[in-house]
Amino acid sequence: MTAAQMTSLQQTAMGGGSATAKTASYTLVAADAGTTVIMNSASATTITVNTSLFSAGDTVFIQNIGAGISTITAGTATVNTASSLALAQYESGYLYFTAAGASIFSKADGAAAAGGGLTLLSTTTLSGSTTTISGISGAYKNLQIIMRNPTWATGVAKIRLAIDGTITFKTSGVISWASGANKDTMVFYSTVQNPMQDTSSNTDGTNSLVWNIYDYAQTTAFKPIDIAWSNATQAYIAGGCIATNGAVSQIQIINDQSYAFNGGSVLIYGVN
Questions:
Q1: What is the reported pTM?
Q2: Could you give the CA distance from residue 213 to residue 248 in angstroms, rounded to a whole number?
Q3: DSSP letter assigned to residue 128
Q4: Domains along the chain?
Q5: How far apart are CA 167 and CA 103, in angstroms?
């Protein structure tokens, strides 16, 4: 037996197998049985699991060494787990096949995060009049979107959040805190067309917006949403829902006057 064959046997005995590096989303193939699949991408990726490729007892070890979240995704096969299917950087886990079309994913770093745990999915710099962020993992309970310090070239504008290319919000109103003599006064507005907005100066670097989208990956009902916005002199909160049954996998940050952003960033977190 050659040294390479001995090494392969040792790796397989330890559950690792030979390693293949992937820098983009990947669909498992039959040859991956007994091997290690290493994901190495700065962007979010998926690892798709299909049926009729593996046999009962086969295993695939998956390791993510990239900064982008890598999510195990059921294609035509079934993937069950007691933990999260999303692998952050340096996390890993095993796929164990109980049948040709069914598998169990066991995360090597333990059980799923406790309720409320945050995982950073992406950080994006605002650019152009619309910034699109796609490929959002559906492996979490809720989604938190934080926009920091947006600025743009000129004028006063509203910043809007669109879901999968459409602004489809139903809202219940806005509570506002103002500055000056009214700084301790809370005002409730009974109606508002779209609370996802920032009407302050284009150069005010103190702006901050937070959107929380609840149960964002389900496909059977509307999604509750709330928002908090503040700058140096004002603060608003609002609530409502996203009027779509589709899972949220893509968002757009839009300047309604088509002014190009020249500063600011958007952070997206998955919430367990």
A1: 0.57
A2: 9
A3: B
A4: 3-107 (2.60.120), 118-271 (2.60.120)
A5: 38
C-alpha 142 chain-centroid distance: 9
| Contact criterion met (CB below 8 Å) for 143 and 269 | yes
Those residues with Cβ within 8 angstroms of residue 53's Cβ, 6 or more apart along the chain or in another chain: 28, 29, 30, 77, 100
Q: Which candidate, 152, 170, 27, places its Cα nearest to that of 95?
A: 27
The set of residues, in sequence order, having a beta carbon less than 8 Å from that of 70 and lying 6+ positions away, is 39, 41, 44, 45, 46, 47, 62, 64, 86, 87
d(CA 45, CA 69): 6
Interatomic CA distance for residues 221 and 243, integer angstroms: 8
> What is the chain's pLDDT, residue by residue, as a tens digit (272 residues)?
555 445 444 444 444 445 668 999 999 999 999 888 999 988 888 999 999 999 999 999 999 988 888 889 888 999 988 777 888 888 888 999 999 999 999 887 544 444 457 788 888 999 998 999 988 888 888 999 998 888 887 777 777 788 877 766 665 555 444 444 444 443 333 333 343 444 445 566 667 788 889 999 888 888 888 887 776 666 777 777 777 788 888 988 888 788 888 888 999 988 87
Any idea which residue has 């982008």 for tokens? 68
